[in-house]
Q: What sequence folds into this?
């Protein structure tokens, strides 16, 4: 693991973080934890089209995506994130599908991962896996 230059809890402060999650309870839990760490939450949103609109208008600095929402049509969201050079992570509980390996700039995380790991993924030195 990399050493952080600042405590991970400070890394979220003031950052606009888009949460894309279709489970209300998971999205709300993530929203609460991230707000406690000082993040400005965009969403949460539960559909790809709304998330793409928010990315296109520059509403977010980084994003956390539910892997279950990542279908063929959802790749447009990932492509927009990469085009705008926004960092993102997938929250998942299993190995990603083969097509996911084609995308760069993200770190794969299990949904139960600690906020420190998400902070490192979004604001750290760019390592791909945690």
A:
């Amino acid at each position: 693991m990399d050493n952080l230059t600042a405590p991970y809890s400070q890394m979220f402060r003031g950052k606009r973080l888009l949460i894309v999650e279709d489970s209300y309870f998971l999205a709300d839990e993530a929203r609460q934890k991230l707000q406690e760490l000082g993040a400005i939450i965009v969403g949460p949103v539960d559909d790809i089209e709304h998330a793409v609109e928010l990315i296109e208008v520059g509403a977010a600095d980084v994003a956390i995506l539910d892997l279950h929402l990542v279908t063929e049509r959802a790749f447009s969201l990932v492509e927009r994130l990469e085009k705008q050079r926004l960092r993102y992570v997938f929250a998942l509980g299993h190995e990603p599908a083969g097509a996911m390996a084609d995308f760069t700039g993200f770190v794969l995380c299990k949904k139960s991962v600690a906020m420190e790991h998400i902070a490192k993924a979004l604001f750290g030195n760019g390592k791909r896996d945690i």
